[in-house]
Design goal:
Number of domains: 1
Largest sheet: 9 strands, mixed
Strand content: 15-25%
Number of strands: 11
Number of helices: 6
CATH topology: TIM Barrel
Length: about 240
């Protein structure tokens, strides 16, 4: 079983307000925690306070620049992006293409022939960019649904994601959505696959997975929430 995370961010593409982690820090830390598979999924865009959206030309650059470094650390780095499509965030795993060709939900259908895995990230966390009910509207497009790290025993927006995954027989994938060290390690996926991209993606599609998860401590939850709020404000004004 491969200890895996398919959703993590660095400050390599955007700036320090999107993540505290450099790519090498993220790779080193996950390697030290026994991870073997990692997708760095930089944001393709973020919104401004005035409602406009700033898009980034090459959010997959982090993968190409650090895949060899990850290999030295015995981590298989898979290309990915947290794409901003119709103002919603969607994880495209093993995607190396041009996001200019993926403008709508219907465009995602094209990726089925390109050996990409489509994951619905943190769908019911209440932000405007979360999928919410759009997930059900387009459930056929998704290969898996994310179980997010950010929850407490008495506050867990993942509950609805779990219900939807069961109802529609979709795999549940536990990810960190890491922007900082304290988001890594409490929520990950064990994948029953060989350590190569094709085997891992097929295992995700066939639900040959086991998620390992536990609630955050209240101090960690508060710290992550505070940093996230400050970062959201700062990155919208720079």
């Amino acid at each position: 079983m491969l200890k895996s995370d398919f959703h993590a961010h660095t400050n390599y593409i955007i700036h320090k307000y999107d993540s505290k982690l450099t790519p090498k820090q993220l790779i080193n830390f996950t390697a030290s925690k026994g991870y073997e598979v990692l997708a760095i999924t930089e944001h393709s865009a973020f919104g401004s306070l005035l409602g406009s959206t700033k898009f980034f030309k090459n959010p997959i650059k982090t993968y190409f620049d650090f895949k060899d470094y990850a290999k030295k650390k015995r981590i298989l780095l898979i290309p990915g992006v947290e794409a901003f499509i119709e103002k919603k965030e969607i994880l495209l795993i093993n995607f190396k293409g041009n996001l200019d060709n993926i403008k709508t939900f219907e465009d995602i259908e094209k990726l089925k022939d390109e050996n990409a895995v489509i994951i619905a990230p943190h769908p019911y966390y209440g932000k405007p960019s979360c999928l919410g009910n759009k997930l059900i509207d387009y459930i056929r497009l998704f290969d898996a649904i994310e179980h997010c790290h950010f929850y407490l025993p008495f506050f867990n927006p993942n509950k609805k994601a779990i219900e939807i995954a069961k109802k529609y027989k979709k795999p549940l994938v536990a990810n960190s959505d890491a922007h900082n060290f304290n988001q890594i390690g409490s929520n990950y996926t064990l994948v029953d696959a060989d350590k190569n991209v094709d085997s891992i993606l097929e295992a995700v599609r066939k639900n040959k997975l086991r998620i390992v998860t536990k609630p955050l401590s209240i101090p960690d939850f508060a710290s992550i929430l505070a940093w996230s709020l400050v970062g959201s404000i700062n990155k919208k004004i720079v």
